[in-house]
Design brief:
The complex is a heterodimer.
Chain A lengths: L1 H33 L4 H4 L14 H9 L2 H32 L5 H10 L9 H10 L6 H25 L3 H9 L4 H12 L1 H17 L2 H5 L8 H6 L9 H21 L1 H9 L5
Chain B lengths: L3 E10 L2 E11 L4 E5 L6 H9 L6 E6 L2 E2 L10 E4 L11 H11 L4 H14 L15 H13 L5 E5 L7 H18 L2 E6 L2 H7 L2 E6 L2 E6 L1 H6 L4 H6 L6 E4 L1 H4 L5 E4 L4 E4 L5 E10 L3 E8 L2 E8 L9 E6 L5 E3 L5 E2 L1
Parallel strand pairs in B: 3-8, 3-9, 6-7, 7-8
Antiparallel strand pairs in B: 1-2, 1-4, 4-5, 9-10, 11-12, 12-18, 13-17, 14-15, 14-17, 15-16, 18-19
Helix pairs in contact in B: 2-3, 2-4
The chains are: A mainly alpha, B alpha+beta.
């Protein structure tokens, strides 16, 4: 009796989980499906779900009209470098906060996080002017710097949480064994924090890849990443749904594949420290 | 090599004074045990010597050199932690080799030293395993191995046996004592277990609330405890402390008599009592007795046929009676 109730509850829970999962995934699925339709099928009413004439034409047109690889390369450079530099800066910062906290460490952490609450558009104008003055407009260097800075609080927070989980006695043992501070970080702390650092890299790479506000506003052509590539297919008339979908699919495909293969790491990264 | 001297050392955490001004000399080659109840400051004192905590005032000298401002890496001391603190991502070999690598020793010399340490500690078969694949006792040995390869001027042990089960604890206790006899290096050992202190130490430092209550050899502390705290802390089972009229007969505030210095009889004696619990160990019988003088513990050698509820008589051996004044201090 009890077992049948548990089994039924399990089935219901699974069904609910799948429904929610599909609901969340539906926009992406719809985008992918639309990318294989003709423009007429894309705006057909009632919408055509699976039974339409499948075509690769949109991909061919998109590839012909704009240089996908250039955008892709920009995305990889911008997301990759901003994440890497962020982590290099954040490791010593998180180390000091986790292992030699001062009275104000908690306040600093909260203040860092509070900068994420700021509406980005509020600083767009000054940022734009600074970028013009420094000649950083439409450069990868400029975007790497901006994305690194806006994601830095998250990187520090994630690493801080990981480092807090490492027993302080092990670092003290390293000190007793004659390790200087840099050696302690290189030989003991970092290898122990590798899983944490990996998921931090991964999550922030995704965040930087998906960042649209600054990448759209601070680039024009040269440094434009895939977000700009998608945006260039969105016209006010909305006539090119299928091509827009093809462009979107091409833009999200790399990150989607990467996320699929590293989902274990990602989930662990997001829930680390939450459960003992 | 290995003399450590603490001069007027104090430690404060914010407003709280954990170690009031303290002077202590640890001689070369001595096995010194810091013992006391939890929160007495014994681990803090060890960490001050290690350099893992900064002292608030005073000086620490190691081999005659002022080491107060010297970092833990440069003090030439090795430490074994309660949690072992092994590097989980390194094999046993790399764990033991780590301090040598940090010292910049060449690979061949490191290898020779690690091999030698492993054979002393019975770890040869485990050199390529990681700490996670070892038992508690083996992990403890790795921690000791990591400490001995450095040939430090002194070893610091912070409650190293408290995570082990009882049988293993006795074994490791012997191993550490033997290690001290072989190496003849200064060892400072922190424990809350007075049996460990009594069995291992050349010199015991009894601490309470950061203050040194008494320093002496195990037998000195056993025979002539300086005050009621040391009297109650050293010795197992605890010394019986009696005050009131019985103590007044001896002209003091408190008298103390150890369980093994009381003769027990079923027929007659000085103090009458009723047995509440009888613990039969074979070699000894411990009787917990409710008497007019309060709850007492007595030890009878061998077996004695006594049970819960029996009435017995106890006679103290006057030559082993301890007398303490109203301030708790020993009086002649």
């Amino acid at each position: 009796m009890a077992r049948s109730i548990t089994a039924r509850r399990k089935t219901i829970n699974t069904a609910i989980a799948w429904s929610i999962g599909l609901l969340i995934f539906f926009p992406i699925l719809w985008t992918i499906l639309t990318s294989f339709k003709s423009e007429a099928d894309a705006i057909a009413f009632p919408p055509k779900f699976l039974f339409f004439d499948w075509t690769l034409e949109n991909y061919a047109v998109v590839q012909e009209r704009s240089d996908y690889t250039r955008y892709l390369w920009n995305s990889i450079i911008i997301a990759g470098l901003s994440t890497l530099i962020g982590v290099i800066i954040a490791i010593p910062a998180a180390w000091s906060m986790a292992f030699v906290p001062s009275r104000h460490t908690k306040d600093i952490l909260l203040w860092m996080l509070s900068t994420k609450m700021l509406p980005a558009v509020g600083v767009l104008y000054p940022m734009y002017l600074i970028f013009i003055k420094l000649g950083l407009l439409d450069t990868r260097t400029g975007l790497v710097m901006v994305l690194m800075l806006i994601n830095l609080p998250i990187i520090v927070w994630m690493l801080y949480t990981y480092f807090k989980e490492i027993p302080g006695e092990i670092l003290e043992a390293a000190r007793m064994d004659g390790a200087s501070l840099p050696k302690e970080i290189i030989y003991v702390l970092t290898p122990m924090a590798v899983p944490g650092i990996a998921s931090t890299l991964l999550l922030n790479f995704i965040l930087a890849w998906n960042e649209a506000f600054w990448t759209l506003n601070l680039t024009a052509a040269k440094a434009a990443p895939l977000t700009a590539f998608i945006a260039s297919y969105s016209s006010p008339e909305g006539l090119f749904y299928a091509k827009l979908s093809a462009a979107s699919t091409m833009a999200i495909a790399p990150i989607l594949i990467m996320g699929w293969f590293s989902q274990k790491q990602l989930v662990r990264g997001l829930t680390f420290g939450a459960v003992k | 090599m290995g003399q450590i001297e603490l001069k007027k050392v104090t430690k404060r955490f914010g407003e709280t004074e954990v170690i009031p001004p303290l002077d202590l000399v640890i001689g070369e080659g001595e096995f010194v045990v810091f013992v006391g109840p939890s929160g007495c400051g014994k681990s803090t004192l060890l960490r001050l010597i290690a350099g893992l905590e900064d002292i608030t005032s005073g000086t620490i000298e190691i081999d005659g050199q002022d080491a107060t401002a010297v970092g833990p890496a440069k003090r030439g001391l090795a430490m074994v932690f309660q949690s072992y603190a092994l590097y989980p991502h390194m094999t046993v070999r790399k764990n033991i080799a780590f301090p040598l690598k940090m010292a910049g020793m060449d690979a061949a010399a490191i290898n020779a030293k690690v091999t030698a340490a492993a054979s002393v500690l019975n770890l040869t078969d485990y050199l390529d395993r990681r700490p996670g694949q070892l038992s508690g006792g083996q992990r403890q040995r790795v921690a000791i191995g990591r400490a001995i390869v450095r040939e430090p001027s002194a070893f610091l042990f912070d409650e190293p046996l408290s995570n082990l089960d009882a049988a293993l604890r006795v074994n490791m206790r012997l191993e550490i004592t033997e290690l001290h006899q072989t190496l003849k290096t200064t060892m400072i050992y922190v424990t809350h277990d007075q049996v460990e202190a009594m069995t291992m130490a050349d010199k015991i430092v009894v601490l309470r609330a950061g203050n040194i209550e008494q320093v002496g050899s195990p037998l000195e502390l056993y025979r002539t405890p300086r005050n009621t705290f040391v009297a109650g802390f050293i010795g197992s089972p605890k010394m019986n402390l009696i005050d009131g009229a019985e103590a007044a007969k001896h002209g003091v505030a408190t008298i103390g008599i150890r369980p093994e210095h009381v003769t027990v009889s079923k027929d007659g004696g000085d103090w009458q009592g009723r047995v509440t619990v009888a613990e039969h160990l074979g070699s000894d019988t411990f009787l917990h007795v409710a008497s007019d003088l309060g709850q007492m513990t007595v030890r009878v050698g061998g077996e004695m046929n006594v049970r819960h509820g029996d009435t017995i008589w106890m006679t103290p051996d006057m030559t082993h009676l301890h007398r303490f004044g109203a301030d708790g201090l020993r009086t002649p």
